[in-house]
Design brief:
- Helices cover 39% and strands 19% of the residues.
- With 108 residues, it is of the alpha+beta class.
- It has 2 domains: 1-70, GIY-YIG endonuclease (3-Layer(aba) Sandwich); 72-108, no CATH class.
- A 3-stranded antiparallel sheet has the order 2-1-3, sandwiched between helices.
- Helix 3 (73-80) packs antiparallel against helix 4.
- The chain is globular.
- The N and C termini lie far apart (49 Å).
- The mean pLDDT is 89.
Length: 108
Amino acid sequence: MKYYFTYIVLCSDNSYYTGITNDLERRLVQHNEGIKRDCYTFNRRPVELKWYLQCTNPSEAIKIEKQIKGWSRRKKTALIEENWQDLIEFSKNYTEYGHPDNRHLGTD
């Protein structure tokens, strides 16, 4: 069975990079060797693997990658740290629930 991985690495500039691959170990080596000059991680090496999810369906891995790429840094950090309560909080729709800083004021 072939596996696909959605992953998050921490770059040397403290930014996150999210990607997918079918060979996680090889891909991390490629990021750290700087194979492509135009790659996001090229000038942000070394990178360190912080999180990954193994999938059997490439479409699912791509879907999860795109979803995570749209997340805020604090939401990605909550995922990496397995802080499920913060992940839920950072996932709330502020249009529907109001911003957490304003909830105590009774305004959105």
